[in-house]
Amino acid sequence: MTTNENTHNAKKTTHKDSSGNQSSSDEIKRIQELEDELKKVYGMLDEQKKELESGKNQLLRALADVQNMRRRSEEEKGKLLFESARNILQAILPSLENFDRALQNLPCELNGNEWVQGILAIEKHLYDLLQKEGVLQIREVGIAFDPALHEAVILDKDGAKGQVTKILQKGFLYNGKVLWPAKVAVGEK
Q1: Which pTM was predicted?
Q2: 3-class SS of residue 173
Q3: Residue 88 CA to chain centroid, in angstroms?
Q4: What is the pLDDT of residues 78-99, one digit of tens each?
Q5: How far apart are CA 186 and CA 44, in angstroms?
Q6: What whole-number distance in Å separates Cα of residue 123 and Cα of residue 106?
Protein backbone atom coordinates (compact mmCIF):
# COMPACT_ATOMS: atom_id res chain seq x y z
CA MET A 1 0.00 0.00 0.00
CA THR A 2 1.15 3.48 -0.75
CA THR A 3 1.30 6.25 1.75
CA ASN A 4 -1.65 7.96 0.13
CA GLU A 5 -3.74 4.88 0.48
CA ASN A 6 -2.76 4.54 4.15
CA THR A 7 -3.70 8.17 4.79
CA HIS A 8 -6.97 7.70 2.98
CA ASN A 9 -7.70 4.54 4.91
CA ALA A 10 -6.80 6.28 8.16
CA LYS A 11 -9.38 8.94 7.44
CA LYS A 12 -11.97 6.25 6.93
CA THR A 13 -11.66 4.88 10.39
CA THR A 14 -14.61 2.88 11.47
CA HIS A 15 -16.21 2.23 14.77
CA LYS A 16 -19.08 0.15 15.95
CA ASP A 17 -22.37 1.64 17.04
CA SER A 18 -24.59 0.18 19.75
CA SER A 19 -26.05 -2.42 17.39
CA GLY A 20 -22.64 -3.65 16.41
CA ASN A 21 -22.70 -2.09 12.91
CA GLN A 22 -19.73 -0.24 11.70
CA SER A 23 -20.07 3.35 10.51
CA SER A 24 -17.54 5.52 8.88
CA SER A 25 -16.68 8.96 10.26
CA ASP A 26 -18.20 10.52 7.12
CA GLU A 27 -21.52 8.90 7.85
CA ILE A 28 -21.39 10.09 11.45
CA LYS A 29 -20.60 13.58 10.26
CA ARG A 30 -23.51 13.41 7.80
CA ILE A 31 -25.87 12.20 10.53
CA GLN A 32 -24.81 15.08 12.79
CA GLU A 33 -25.38 17.52 9.94
CA LEU A 34 -28.84 16.06 9.36
CA GLU A 35 -29.60 16.27 13.07
CA ASP A 36 -28.50 19.91 13.07
CA GLU A 37 -30.69 20.55 10.02
CA LEU A 38 -33.59 18.82 11.76
CA LYS A 39 -33.10 21.01 14.85
CA LYS A 40 -33.15 24.10 12.62
CA VAL A 41 -36.35 22.88 10.92
CA TYR A 42 -37.96 22.22 14.32
CA GLY A 43 -36.88 25.69 15.45
CA MET A 44 -38.40 27.23 12.32
CA LEU A 45 -41.58 25.19 12.87
CA ASP A 46 -41.78 26.46 16.46
CA GLU A 47 -41.40 30.05 15.22
CA GLN A 48 -44.07 29.49 12.56
CA LYS A 49 -46.33 27.93 15.17
CA LYS A 50 -45.87 30.97 17.44
CA GLU A 51 -46.54 33.35 14.54
CA LEU A 52 -49.62 31.34 13.57
CA GLU A 53 -50.88 31.41 17.17
CA SER A 54 -50.23 35.15 17.33
CA GLY A 55 -52.07 35.68 14.04
CA LYS A 56 -54.95 33.54 15.30
CA ASN A 57 -55.15 35.60 18.50
CA GLN A 58 -55.10 38.84 16.52
CA LEU A 59 -57.85 37.52 14.28
CA LEU A 60 -59.96 36.49 17.28
CA ARG A 61 -59.48 39.94 18.85
CA ALA A 62 -60.44 41.60 15.58
CA LEU A 63 -63.53 39.37 15.33
CA ALA A 64 -64.49 40.23 18.92
CA ASP A 65 -64.01 43.93 18.13
CA VAL A 66 -66.28 43.63 15.09
CA GLN A 67 -68.93 41.80 17.14
CA ASN A 68 -68.74 44.45 19.86
CA MET A 69 -68.98 47.20 17.26
CA ARG A 70 -72.07 45.55 15.73
CA ARG A 71 -73.66 45.15 19.17
CA ARG A 72 -72.95 48.79 20.06
CA SER A 73 -74.23 49.89 16.66
CA GLU A 74 -77.46 47.94 17.17
CA GLU A 75 -77.85 49.39 20.66
CA GLU A 76 -77.29 52.90 19.35
CA LYS A 77 -79.69 52.29 16.49
CA GLY A 78 -82.30 51.04 18.98
CA LYS A 79 -81.77 54.09 21.19
CA LEU A 80 -82.08 56.46 18.24
CA LEU A 81 -85.25 54.76 17.02
CA PHE A 82 -86.70 54.84 20.51
CA GLU A 83 -85.82 58.52 20.95
CA SER A 84 -87.28 59.42 17.55
CA ALA A 85 -90.48 57.51 18.23
CA ARG A 86 -90.68 58.96 21.74
CA ASN A 87 -90.34 62.51 20.41
CA ILE A 88 -93.11 61.92 17.86
CA LEU A 89 -95.34 60.23 20.43
CA GLN A 90 -94.78 62.97 23.00
CA ALA A 91 -95.93 65.47 20.38
CA ILE A 92 -99.03 63.45 19.38
CA LEU A 93 -100.24 61.97 22.67
CA PRO A 94 -101.17 65.28 24.38
CA SER A 95 -103.55 65.96 21.49
CA LEU A 96 -105.14 62.56 22.04
CA GLU A 97 -105.43 63.32 25.75
CA ASN A 98 -107.18 66.60 24.91
CA PHE A 99 -109.44 64.65 22.57
CA ASP A 100 -110.28 62.30 25.48
CA ARG A 101 -111.04 65.22 27.81
CA ALA A 102 -113.32 66.81 25.23
CA LEU A 103 -115.23 63.54 24.80
CA GLN A 104 -115.50 63.06 28.58
CA ASN A 105 -117.17 66.47 28.82
CA LEU A 106 -119.58 65.76 25.96
CA PRO A 107 -123.05 67.22 26.61
CA CYS A 108 -125.60 64.53 27.46
CA GLU A 109 -127.86 65.45 24.52
CA LEU A 110 -125.04 64.45 22.07
CA ASN A 111 -124.41 60.96 23.52
CA GLY A 112 -126.23 59.02 20.78
CA ASN A 113 -125.28 61.37 17.96
CA GLU A 114 -123.86 59.59 14.89
CA TRP A 115 -121.20 62.24 14.42
CA VAL A 116 -120.01 61.74 18.01
CA GLN A 117 -120.02 57.95 17.46
CA GLY A 118 -117.78 58.49 14.43
CA ILE A 119 -115.38 60.60 16.51
CA LEU A 120 -115.30 57.86 19.20
CA ALA A 121 -114.51 55.28 16.49
CA ILE A 122 -111.63 57.44 15.24
CA GLU A 123 -110.29 57.76 18.78
CA LYS A 124 -110.44 53.99 19.30
CA HIS A 125 -108.72 53.40 15.97
CA LEU A 126 -105.89 55.78 16.89
CA TYR A 127 -105.30 54.03 20.24
CA ASP A 128 -105.42 50.62 18.52
CA LEU A 129 -102.76 51.77 16.03
CA LEU A 130 -100.57 53.05 18.84
CA GLN A 131 -100.96 49.77 20.71
CA LYS A 132 -99.85 47.82 17.63
CA GLU A 133 -96.71 49.98 17.57
CA GLY A 134 -95.93 49.19 21.22
CA VAL A 135 -97.60 52.13 22.96
CA LEU A 136 -99.60 51.14 26.03
CA GLN A 137 -101.68 53.32 28.32
CA ILE A 138 -101.01 53.46 32.05
CA ARG A 139 -104.54 53.73 33.38
CA GLU A 140 -105.12 51.08 36.03
CA VAL A 141 -106.88 52.05 39.24
CA GLY A 142 -106.68 50.00 42.44
CA ILE A 143 -103.06 48.96 42.02
CA ALA A 144 -100.09 49.86 44.20
CA PHE A 145 -98.52 53.24 43.49
CA ASP A 146 -95.30 52.76 41.48
CA PRO A 147 -93.10 55.87 41.16
CA ALA A 148 -91.66 54.48 37.92
CA LEU A 149 -95.15 54.50 36.36
CA HIS A 150 -97.09 57.09 38.38
CA GLU A 151 -96.76 60.68 39.46
CA ALA A 152 -98.73 61.33 42.64
CA VAL A 153 -100.60 64.61 42.21
CA ILE A 154 -103.33 64.32 44.86
CA LEU A 155 -103.65 62.42 48.15
CA ASP A 156 -107.04 60.74 48.45
CA LYS A 157 -108.18 60.72 52.10
CA ASP A 158 -110.76 58.02 51.44
CA GLY A 159 -108.57 55.69 49.35
CA ALA A 160 -106.50 52.72 50.55
CA LYS A 161 -102.99 53.73 51.57
CA GLY A 162 -100.47 53.50 48.74
CA GLN A 163 -103.09 52.54 46.13
CA VAL A 164 -103.89 54.43 42.94
CA THR A 165 -107.46 55.65 43.42
CA LYS A 166 -107.92 57.78 40.32
CA ILE A 167 -106.13 58.47 37.02
CA LEU A 168 -106.02 62.21 36.45
CA GLN A 169 -104.00 61.96 33.25
CA LYS A 170 -103.02 58.74 31.49
CA GLY A 171 -99.39 57.79 31.27
CA PHE A 172 -97.85 55.90 28.39
CA LEU A 173 -95.30 53.15 27.89
CA TYR A 174 -93.46 52.60 24.64
CA ASN A 175 -91.99 49.12 24.22
CA GLY A 176 -91.93 48.72 27.99
CA LYS A 177 -90.28 52.09 28.69
CA VAL A 178 -92.15 54.98 30.26
CA LEU A 179 -92.82 57.85 27.87
CA TRP A 180 -94.33 59.76 30.75
CA PRO A 181 -95.92 58.63 33.98
CA ALA A 182 -99.63 58.69 34.71
CA LYS A 183 -100.75 61.54 36.97
CA VAL A 184 -102.72 59.89 39.76
CA ALA A 185 -104.49 60.29 43.09
CA VAL A 186 -103.04 58.05 45.80
CA GLY A 187 -104.90 56.83 48.85
CA GLU A 188 -103.64 57.75 52.29
CA LYS A 189 -106.18 55.95 54.52
Answers
A1: 0.58
A2: strand
A3: 25
A4: 899 888 988 888 888 888 888 8
A5: 79
A6: 14
How far apart are alpha carbons 86 and 179 in whole angstroms? 7
d(CA 174, CA 91): 14
Span 116-163, pLDDT tens digits: 999 889 989 999 999 998 999 998 999 999 999 999 999 999 999 999
Name the average pLDDT for the chain.
86
Output the 3-class SS for 29-98. Answer: HHHHHHHHHHHHHHHHHHHHHHHHHHHHHHHHHHHHHHHHHHHHHHHHHHHHHHHHHHHHHHHHHHHHHH
Report which DSSP code applies to 108.
G
Q: What is the DSSP string of 110-171?
A: GTT-HHHHHHHHHHHHHHHHHHHTTEEEE--SSSB--TTTEEEEEEEEEEEETBEEEEEE-E
